Amino acid sequence: MRPELLRWAAERSGIGPEVLARRFPRLHSWEIGETRPTIKQLEGFARATHTPIGFLFLAEPPEERIPIPDFRTVRDERIRRPSPELLDTIYLCQQRQDWYHDFARSLGQEGRPFVGSIAPGTPVKEAAAAMRGQLAFSTDARRQSPTWEAALRTFVQLAEDAGVLVMVNGVVGNNTHRRLDPGEFRGFALVDDQAPLVFVNGADTKAAQMFTLAHELVHIWSGRSGVIDADVSAVPAGHERWCNEVAAELLVPLDEFRREQRDGAPLRSELDRLARVFKVSTLVILRRMNDAGYLTGDRYWKAFNDELALLRSIERGSGGNFYFTQPVRNSRRFTRALIADTLEGNTLYRDAFRMLGISTDATFRELGAKLGFVV
């Protein structure tokens, strides 16, 4: 074990050096090679820093890469090093996707025809109309929702009904000590004909989650996996710009928006009214005001930043009921399929526990009961 591997793991973890020093008082002497940790101490250090223990025995620090295309940028530059939280979340979702792919194939299910059905660069209105029709996500249907937050829940359910595994989580698995950073990524899409999967960073604002979900679904329909930092206010280049434009048109068709927009009305009242009409967040409404040319330049950016600050001050996140949040975190479609297959004896309980992030039979059975299974 080379001392520089310990320094690399500590830096990679993002945990403050003073925190690690309190937990491992001899860490400095390990890092400078004065003493060596025991295997038990090394295992504890690996767990604390979320590092695969085998990495600590390599000749040099590995160059970790995100296993799917990376479309994230900061000031137009690629983000170099992914966090352990992002990597572990992608790996976990890939495991779930692989399981569901095999499960669907075992039932003789055909692939989802919408996956990759829209060529990148298709005219925005045409692409959004095709998606809206397949998802049954029309403005008229959304008017039935009491709030845009309720419409977001409906949007998730419609995507799941179409066959997309939608996972919304703000932590790694169920580990509340490993929060996902919206500044690093807002979501990702994993394309698969049997098990298309979308992950939305639940640590982000609810307002941002709606646009992220729409953006990631465009990735599924265009057949391109990727991790993104989709921002309703951003104007990226290439494929990501097209995805943003289709997502905005999917949520709020520009022709309908122009018919609803009232010239000269106070901005605050128009934001709230149009958010009620289209059942989307006020951030999406501001984006469409900009697209329609009603609010541009510095006025748009000031209004957007003010609204974002307001929404962040209002939102109060909470863990909620475990048995309610689990199907949201893991995809209701995936959770129901995994529980059913496990109860039928086709999947080992230990594998089901690992993929669901639970540790006891009682929790598994209670979760199954909440989802309507007799266990």
Structure description:
Helices cover 54% and strands 7% of the residues. By secondary structure, the chain is α+β, with helices and mostly antiparallel strands. The chain has three domains: 3-57; 73-250, no CATH class; 322-370. A four-stranded mixed beta sheet has the order 3-7-6-8, with helices on both faces. β4 (171-172) and β5 (175-179) form a beta hairpin. α9 (206-222) crosses α10 (238-251). The longest helix has 23 residues, at 84-106. The protein is globular and about 75 Å long. The N and C termini lie far apart (48 Å). The mean pLDDT is 89.
Strand content: 5-15%
Helix content: 40-55%
Strand tally is 8
Please give the radius of gyration in angstroms. 23 Å
Order of helices and strands: HHHHEEHHHHEEEEEHEHHHHHHHHH
Q: Based on Cα principal axes, name the global outline.
A: globular
The average pLDDT is: 89
Please outline the major beta sheet: 4 strands, mixed
Sheet with most strands: strand arrangement: 3-7-6-8
Query: How many separate structural domains?
Result: 3
Distance between the termini: 48 Å
Q: How many H/I helical runs?
A: 18
* Computed structural class: alpha+beta
Unreliable runs: none
